[in-house]
Design a protein that fits this description.
With 270 residues, the protein is of the alpha+beta class.
Amino acid sequence: MIHLKSEREIAKMRRSGLAVWQAHQIARRMVKPGVTTAEIDAEIEAYFDKLGGEPLFKNYPHHNRGKPSFPAVTCMSLNEEVVHGIPNKRPLKEGDILSLDTGVRINGWCGDAAVTYAVGEIDPDVQRLLDVTEGTLGLAFELMHSKSKWSQIAREMAEYVSDHGFSTVECFVGHGIGRKMHEDPQVPNFLGRALRGSGDFRIEPGLVIAVEPMVNMGTKRVKMLKDHWTQVTADGKPSAHFEHTIAVTDDGPTQLTIAPQPSEEKLLVV
């Protein structure tokens, strides 16, 4: 069941969204050759701790009973890693791309966002992959202003990706978000069987969703590594991932995980 949020609840989620935005500013400053993903993860964990926030990813249970829970505050997915990569002590190198996904709960409400960062100078074709993936997220946000059903948006997202010669990952989707990181509805980035049936939903005030296109340079197929978390492209080609938490208000859609307005500066802890 989809739980529509009140304006007051969305305002509380904006506080968490700002914290996630600030976590990405920490990452943006740190992402460079020679830095490890473990070091970035530690800095973001320290920031969330300073806020009194609850990291959403650390100790998140595996969907398969008996498998290890997720061990870090951030998902750090490098190059051909699509999602759920585990931070480690391997230094980043020039030409890498790093998809960083993180979330936090503050005062009972969640925020969640992902960015794929270029490490130094990257191959132009890989940069185009990043641009198209971020553009897909931007397209979804713009379409939320005019479309009435998510299926209409998902169709155009997938067409945009395909028109640029890339593929949309279909085994991972976005999600509703609120007091919990994962709530109804599921938010696919493509028009599949679910959205053609009962899985479709209306774009209406109170809806809050995490929209997160994952786009591969080659095949859409992925496989899991032996760590039971990291998902990589089946053909070893690069993948990119961008995500925002987006709320629909009476005044239209708004992104909760973007930079603060001047009136919101006081909400930040740096």
